[in-house]
## 1
Amino acid sequence: MRRQGGNSALRVLLVEAGISNAALARAIVALGSAEGIHLGTTTTSVRRMLDGAQPRWPVPRLVAAVLSRRLGREVSVADCGFTDRVAAVEDRLDGLRCAGSLEGTVRTVVDLSVRDLNRRGFLVGSAFAVSAFSQPALLALTVPSVEVAGRLTGRRVGSADIEVVTEHLAHLRRLDHRYGAGRVRDQVVHLVHRQGNAVLHGSYDEATGRALLESTAQAAWLTGAMAADVGRHALAQRYYIQALNLAMSAGARAYAANVLSHMARLTLQMGQGNAAADERMLHARQTVALSRAGMGVGGRELTPALAALLNAVQARGHAVLGDVVTARECRRQAEGQFQRHRSGQEPAWLGFYTQSELDADLGRCLRDLGDGEPAVRLLNRALENYEPWRARSRCFVHTDLSSAHLVDGDHDRAAASARFAIRAAGSLRSVRTIDRLRILRRSVRPVRERSVVLRTLDDELTEFLSRTRRERSEASVP
């Protein structure tokens, strides 16, 4: 089969790589021979490819492999202008497994990001698997991490390159908080793809390699967090798992513990969105287990703020389970640990976990324990002290405050807080804000007949959720 107009994509890549038709043909034959495949690719064969011919498999795969090595980044079969036969069958990449080698983990991240960028429907419709985090957490606790080795070939990667990426991640994270992930997610997917390629094809010493790998773990985590924020929970799971694997390979146990705390958060969030009580309990138990795994993985590297974060998330899990004594003990530990933290002595990536974030977590814990009045106090204090750019967090807390007022029996304030959340959610590109309002409506609906205020609030929530559902459906139509 011949493409009309020739294969311009392949032509551009050959120019970029500085490789001639004859050199490409020789490299294809050599790579095939190394795999036990005997090919007759010649300069004429390459010229036909450039004219638009589709070579027989596995030549397209070998062309992509040759160009990947030459360019120092992953080049796909589709990038070369060929039909990817692998894409025509069921995609076997699940991203949930631990590769068992550092190179395998990084290639999984690169493959995930390629599919994420090029296939808008990748994993859409796949379900969040509550048990999927169990194996990575267990391996992090029990299996020695893979050591990072330096690489001597490829583009040189230095400390300045890593600093640029770290600052870029901090900037993207702030934009995510202000506007929602829907406006910036593509940027971070491109970033994690570039970082993965730098690990695979860059040149660096061992110390720089560890720093590079940790920055790649941070990029993978942020990509997962943004996937969750736009409602792609199955995709978020895969990025989180690979972020944990990367952090452990980098020897960054504190960051690995941080990733486990966010695995626990996502698990709890998914459980609270489930109407079935037994499913909520299952998710809460997994939340507790993941938080405890984070404590074990972090060990002596746990800072006071990170220990507070893990205990606060664990307290929320126990609250959902109805374990009042343990929830309150975890809450007490979280408060005490955070009092010992000192700004400037915590890692930069943990800077987001402020007193306001702790207050919000513990306020949610108290709400779920049925302690409406103290929950309201903590949630209000969180709102008062949040930085202006934390628009999404404010939206979350207004929603939580509304549900806490419901527990406390204050219908007027419940409605007022919910309206703040509705207005904020309307200006954000964040599915999580909408999911929180959907959970709030589930709490309002059974008691709506108790007052006119609650009936009106239920109607307003229903109208907002219906409108956003229509808008998302229309946006998905080509």
## 2
Amino acid sequence: MEALEIVRLVLRYLHLVGVALLLGGFAVQALAAQYRINSAMLYGAVAQIATGFALAAPLGRDEQPPPAKLAVKMAIALLIAAMVIVVRNKDSVAKGHFFAIGGMTLLNIGVATFWT
């Protein structure tokens, strides 16, 4: 296995850990009916941006994901991160704001899964 392939696989692994942190942190707060941003959501959103940006690089692959897909995923990820970062220090956030974060996270997973 080539070194660039190993780097790509590690980045993909960290990207999945980031989405797990973001969605898991959201689920914990939603199930407790406490609409606030926890550290897992913050770190997950940041990990999604960093690893997503790195994964968009060619990294020696012959076939790249469609540029439109990458742009849509990055736009959604940036919106999620902005919504998390802006209210991260508040004791609670509006229910709609909170559930928009979870919904956009699921939307981003859907784009990654179903857009080929």
## 3
Amino acid sequence: MQNYSPYYLLLFVCMGLMFLNALKKDKQLVHYLFVIFCGSLCMVAAQKLSAQSIGAYQYLIGLFTCATCNVSWLIARTLFREHSPISRRHVTFAATIAGLIMFNQTWHYLVSLDPQPLPTSDIIWRLKQGVNEVTILLSTSILALSFWEAFRGYSKKTQSQKMQSVIFGSAWVLAVFNASIFPKFIFSAAEIELYNPIIITSSALLIVFAMQGVMLLQAKVINNQALKQEDDIGTINNDTFNLNENCNQDVEPELIVGITKLINEQQLYLKASLKISDFAQALMVPEYKVSRAIRYHYKAANFNLFINQYRVKYAKKLLINDQTKEWSILSIALESGFSSLATFNRVFKSIVGDIPNEYRKQNGGYYNKGIRELVD
């Protein structure tokens, strides 16, 4: 007789992580996807635990198990791609797999209720077999894509990013090996059925913990970067602001014109994850020239501070604009070029003195009176 206690472990762990991420204040896209993924795994555990007691109705619970491997792929893209990780075609592909899973669960439910009408149609049975094959093929493909996302461009990654890739990729390999290959070597067919709850639970938790671990590592990196930006603001050397005339003469006027156009006309500072190399590439000059222009002409300690000053100025306008008064702080942060709410709050406070929400409350009414000097 099967021991179903591992499913309770899967249920409680996934439920705990689901609420932990759902209640997180500075949520990003990956947190929403992870909540959906954990919720679907909770439904997997609930279906297994309730199968004997509710019979055919277990397949109604099974309808909500449609966000496992497909959503894990979306999570992998979000974790390891900086620019446009998810587009409409990715959501469509994931939704297609979800639809196939729901079709299978609906089929099993109908057959369990009244098995007589369905077998009379050979076409329906062939359709069912075809859907099964397509579902298996797509699910296998999407597992491979999830693994590939972790190691895509591995040689160009930083040490921290490489560690994240190894954690995520290793968990996937171990989970697949544990679920499909390892049991066949050490168990008979009857034993595999007996130990199936342990196999499923251990494989699922490997992936869940790997995802959560990578998310925590990435959050730590973002926090460290934000703290570094604060340190840069607080440790600007007086020499940066008291440069001699020779330094200014080294900056080409054409370069200043180019940077000004990128800032004022193209608003390049609104691009997320902007790097100094993006400026250099757009202006077709070496990076050191852009850096020198920023320090000597614009009197900014570094590129991050230079860009963040424009982002904060843009965000201040959005915060007190009547047309964007219903926007959330997260929406304004993303619209202003910041990668996360935590970074936006820290940088905004370090430059303005208040967090964005306080600034909105204190200054929201002045915009209507026409006092626009607050953001100039």
## 4
Amino acid sequence: MSWKTIFKMVFRRTGYELYKIQAGKEYTLLLPYGCHTYSPWYEDWFQAIYDKIKGHTGIAEDRCYMLHRLSQHCSHLDGDFAECGVYRGGSAFLIALTLGKSGAQRKELHIFDTFKGMPGFADQDPSCHVEGHMGDVSLDAIKHYLRVFPFIVFHPGVIPETFETVKDKRFAFVHVDVDLYRSTKDCCAFFYDRLVSGGMMVVDDYGFPGYKLAAKQAVDEFFLDKPENPISLRTGQCMVIKL
């Protein structure tokens, strides 16, 4: 089979092209190496979890699996959890579900978003976003969807102004999915000093070409003079482990 034929065998999800050529159930083709690798996000147990959120997120199974496993790992550390960039609440549901199953309900999950789409300064961002993009949401609808998790705290408004209410807290896990250069850098600047030792920051969209000058550049610039190095993942995310 030629590479041209392989690249035509695609399926689309939220505007990205994902290549899903499977050998068996849990092994998918790793390009450009041409070998199949273990992909646990297609196993039945995780598909059952993903079914609960797939209508409420633009994040594909592989990235959601990483969020699940990394937040599960951090659930045993001191500190609360946070998510910046909530959209329809799917990834917040996933993180909260993971916290609940780990027995870490004593933690709070703080979620930050305008809950009405991209802010005004998105028009000047090097990404593809404009003001109001991803605005097909409402705070009331997301609160209803997440109603089974009483430990979720909502912070509606524009980042970083909404961080003021948690300035005295410490965090074990932070998921950053704000897309924009300015917002990503604001998240890094606020949460870096508040991460506990061994805590993690996971940044979405780091590895996608459309965000090279947005999310990726913001992360790279911020950590240029820090002892931690962002670890790029094949899923398009990056993670930072606080030393």
